[in-house]
Amino acid sequence: MTSVSSTISQLPQKARIMIVEDHVIVRQGIAQLVNREPDLDICCEAGDAEAAIAILRSQPIDLAIVDISLPGTSGIELVKLIHQDKADLPVLMMSMHDEALYSDRAFRAGAKGYLMKQEASEKLLIAIRKILNGGVYVSDRMQTVMVQRFLSAGMDQQVSFIDNLTDREFEILRMIGQGMSVSEIAAKLGRSVKTIEAHRANLREKLGLKRAAELARFATQWAERGN
pTM above the 0.85 mark? Predict the structure, then answer.
C-alpha cells in the first residue's frame, strides 16, 4: 500500500514563477492563465523593482516575468539588477511596446525572452516553457525582423541610434514620444524634474537638436514608427 507521503513526494514539482507588473488586473490575468497548468505556479507578485528584489532575496524563484514599464526603476534596469543577484535566473520580458525596437535592449540586459502583451494569451505558456527548458523565446515576426535588419540599411541606422542611448535615455525618449511632460516623466520614474531635464539635454545633444520642441517632434515620429 502506498502511503500518502510517498504519493506526494512523487508529484512533479511546479516551476515557481514571479510576476513583476504594476497593474494588478494584468497580474491577475497572467496568474489565472498560468495557474491552470499542472506544472506551473505563480508563487509571488510585485508591483515594482524594489518589491521584486526583496522577493528574490527571500525565496527561490525559477522564472521572472517582468513588464518593461515599471514605476521608478524600469523593467530593463530590473533585469540587470536580477542578474547581479541571481545570474542564472531566467527572465521573460513582457511589454505593450513593439518588440522590433525594444527586444534588443531587453536581451542585452539579460532577458531570455520578449513577449508582447497583445500575444500573451496565445504565446505566454509557450514562452515560459521554452525558457524554463533553457531556450530563448522570440516571436516568429521578430525572427523575420532580425533577418531583415541585416538586409536593410535603414533599420541598421535605427538600431545604431538606439545603441547610442543609455537605458534611461531610451525610456525617457519613449515617454516623450507618448506626449508625457517633464513632470509626468519625473513622477513615473520617481526622479526629480531637474534630473529628467538633464536627460532631455543629453538626448538633444546626441540627436543634434537645439530645442525641446524639436526633440518632442522627433520622439513622437520615432514612437509612431516603432509602435
Answer: no
